[in-house]
Fold this sequence. Notes:
By secondary structure, this protein is an alpha/beta fold. It has helices at residues 41-53, 79-83, 85-97, 109-120, 145-161, 180-190, 201-204, 225-234, 263-279, and strands spanning 2-9, 15-22, 31-34, 58-62, 102-107, 128-134, 212-217, 239-244. An eight-stranded mixed beta sheet has the order 1-2-4-3-5-6-7-8, sandwiched between helices. The mean pLDDT is 95.
Amino acid sequence: xxQETHLVPMQGxxxxxxxxxxxxxxVGLPVVVAHGTLSNQLAVExxxxxxxEQGFDTWLLEWGGHGHAKPAxxxxxxxxxxxxxxxxxxxxxxQYTGFEQLHWTSHSGGGxxxxxxxxxxxxxxxxxxxxxxxxxxxxxxxxxxxEKMRVAALGTLTRLFGRTPRKLVPIGPEGEPTxxxxxxxxxxxxxxxxGTDGFDYLEALKxxxxxxxxxxxxxxxxxxxxxxxxIYEALGGPKTWHECTVKQGFSKDFSHSQxxxxxxxxxEVFPLLHRFIQAA
Length: 280
């Protein structure tokens, strides 16, 4: 297997980073693995390595100032990387590999970015063979007063600092370098996923009709099952749902990070993705 890194510039400034794991004889279409907020390629390297071991030409995407990537500007919100970073990455991969389509696999916010792009630019559906979302939600992280206060404080401090320091939300390997989480907090406090111009993302998901896999963790406080299920039900289909809980036959109720790291993820969650992509 060979590894290579590409820094791909964006029209509005900054660049994304693409880390490629290429098997000697790749099978099928390229597979993109996108990390979530407060993260970088290190968060999803176990998943990326697993998929490459199965023979897939795997590309780990770093977006919006994470890891080796550089954001276009520090004031960008959650919608900005969806509509700028992702197109740059997708177009580079299809041009570089010669394939017209790819598989999109993602954790947390990396899935939200793909959904926002496809909702706004449905013509890009032709570039996506399958869509896999692990722990992705945007409306249900503040179900009670205590959580509402926590999410509101996170949004306020992010706006105050101009970024989200890792110590405020120590769930990933780094902080969030932009104002991105201000918008995420607003969506979860209101329970509505709407753009700055009023665009209703949840309503627009019905036009996303590529095969989709949605995976939720039974003990995921960042992406509660209810929020993941809301996205699943809004998608146009065909679609598949998995809830990683003891009740559903898994070894434990998985947390947000346990679905992408550790032996249980490798033996119980990653094979779900492999079979889904392979069957497409």
